[in-house]
Amino acid sequence: MKQLLTASLLLLSAQAFAQPAAGPYARMVVIQPKPGQATAFEQGYQRHLEWHSKAADRWTWYGWSFVLGERLGMFMDGTFGHAAANFDAAMQPAADAADNAANVVPYADFLSHGVFCRLDAASVGQPLPDTSPFLAMTTYTVAAGDEGAFERQLEAGATRPGAGPARTPGGASRFTWYKLQIGGRPTVCFDACSAILRRSGGVAGSGAAWRPGDGAQRAYGAAALPRRDELRT
User: Fold this and answer.
1) Distance between CA atoms of 16 and 18, rounded to whole angstroms?
2) Keywords in UniProt for this one (predicted)?
């Protein structure tokens, strides 16, 4: 899977120079390969990416495998850094759906598909994701009516002392928050991607004094329920 996902990123990154107008919006899709169909899914997904490349898709797509957490074994892909209007001009949506149905759907189930907005005031460092081999993603479902207070808590945590951009293995954290705009349940969902440092001895955390969501979780308890997963490209 690692080789597939690395190739997936490289396959479309050549189109990055033509990426549409930049903005804070993203599309993220979570996929579950069907039992016994992991290899067939990988091959089918690769064929679908080849279709995107031949069609001169101007969007850059990233892909990850979940290697820890409740979504272990699932796959997620996404395209980031878009203006909202970009999604009104997706490339050949009918043909894209037809190729997806032929090459991916027989081997996997699509669990979620959402449009998210990056929360820059709550984030630290250059926007994630990037091409790091590992990322951690924490998803919060926030109780109705607490969305504004939750965001304010995140923004306060991002500006407190020590929450600077990542510099060294022992330095401050780097993380990016995304808020669900369209798709999924009616509650608000936040995805936090924080950098994970890959060391020769294994995988280590970012070493941050304050990790994304800690303050909000303490403040709201059961009102903000987290799910934490780690991903590998």
Assistant:
1) 5
2) Signal
Q: In this structure, are residues 34 and 82 in contact, taking their beta carbons and an 8 Å threshold?
A: no
76: nearest Cα among 32, 37, 43: 32
pTM beyond cutoff 0.85: no
> For 5-29, how does the pLDDT look when each residue is reduced to its tens digit (9 = 90+)?
333 333 333 333 345 568 999 999 9
Token code pair at residue 78: 């996404």
pLDDT surpasses 80 at 173: no
C-alpha count within 13 angstroms, C-beta hemisphere, residue 115: 12
Lowest mean pLDDT among 45-54, 130-139, 162-171, 202-211: 202-211
Alpha-carbon distance 116 to 42, whole Å? 25
The answer to whether 26 and 79 have CB atoms below 8 angstroms apart is yes
Categorise residue 92: left if φ over 0, alpha if ψ from -120 to 50, beta otherwise.
Answer: left
The single residue listed with the structure tokens 């479902």 is: 141
CB–CB of 203/46 below 8 Å?
no
For 83-117, what is each residue's pLDDT tens digit? 999 999 888 999 999 999 999 999 999 999 999 99
Please name the amino acid found at residue 81.
G
What is the spatial distance between Cα 29 and Cα 44, in angstroms, rounded to a whole number? 16
Give CA–CA dist 46/212, Å, rounded.
Answer: 33
Domains of the chain: 2-115 (3.30.70.100), 119-232 (3.30.70)
Q: Which residues pair with 224 in a beta bridge?
A: 142
